[in-house]
Amino acid sequence: MGAVRKILMYKIAIMATALAAVVMIGSVVLMTGPYNPFLASNGKAAQIARGYALYGVHCAKCHGKNLEGQPNWKSPLPNGRLPAPPHDKSGHTWHHTDEALRGITKLGLKPFAGDNYESDMPAFGAILSDEEIEAILAYIKSTWPERENTYQQQITRQSKAQPTE
Q1: CA distances from 3 to 6, 13, 77 (A)
Q2: 11 and 81, same domain (yes or no)
Q3: Please, what is the Cα angle at 13 between 8 and 18, to 5 degrees?
Q4: Which end of the chain is more exposed for a tag (fewer CB within 10 A), N or C?
Q5: What pLDDT is stored for residue 143 in this prediction?
Q6: Are residues 126 and 103 in the same domain?
Q7: pTM of the predicted model, to two decimals?
Q8: Which of 58, 28, 61, 39 is nearest to 141 (CA)?
Q9: What pLDDT, on the 0 to 100 scale, is given for residue 40?
Q10: Cα–Cα distances in Å, from 31 out to 26, 82, 114, 148?
Q11: Are residues 84 and 152 in the same domain?
Q12: Which helix H or strand E contains 90, and what residues bound it?
């Protein structure tokens, strides 16, 4: 009976060590990825986590798992369309107001770039709810450095202060 017990204890120790390693690796990956939920503030952690998951399903195929966009995103493809831009600080997403980002995501680019502009960016209004779009945008913004976040917040505030005609 002693040998069986020793083998069982050995297997339990190996499984416990493996589980601890998985938890540690998972924690490191989570904390060093583009989104770190431990740095989220203003009670937005759940919204950002939801946005991260939704981004992975609906956006990452074109805009990249790490928000890196498609290669040579500033140069037209042979069909004349531009590749998907990055949503990280190297792109121009942070140059747009919240209203524009919501609109482009919901309605596609045509209402903002004109009827003659051809893009592979679909309109997600029939696929994603407004809350889901907000969650995706919250996730994207959570990855930006302070400078880009501050600029984007500033232009959003300025656009709200502009009188409409």
Answers
A1: 5, 15, 67
A2: no
A3: 125
A4: C
A5: 96
A6: yes
A7: 0.72
A8: 39
A9: 55
A10: 9, 32, 40, 21
A11: yes
A12: none
Which domain does 2 fall in, by range? 1-32
**What are the start-end ranges of the H helices in 2-145?**
2-32, 45-58, 60-63, 98-107, 110-113, 130-142
Q: Assess whether 140 and 60 both reside in one domain.
A: yes
φ, ψ for residue 99, nearest 5 deg? -60, -45
Rounded-to-integer distance, Cα 42 and Cα 70, Å = 32
Average pLDDT, 10 consecutive residues per value, the chain (165 residues): 75 69 59 54 83 97 96 92 94 95 94 84 95 97 96 93 67
Q: Looking at the structure, tell me whether residues 15 and 61 fall in a common domain.
A: no
Smallest CA-to-CA distance from 140 within 47, 74, 8, 61 is with 47
Q: How many domains does the chain have?
A: 2
* Closest alpha carbon to 161 in 97, 109, 113, 105: 97
Could you give the CA distance from residue 147 to residue 105 in angstroms, rounded to a whole number? 23
Q: Are residues 12 and 80 in the same domain?
A: no
Residues 147 and 71 grouped into a single domain? yes
Output the pLDDT for position 47: 95
52 close to 29: Cβ distance less than 8 angstroms: no
Residues 107 and 100: their CA atoms lie apart, in Å, by 10
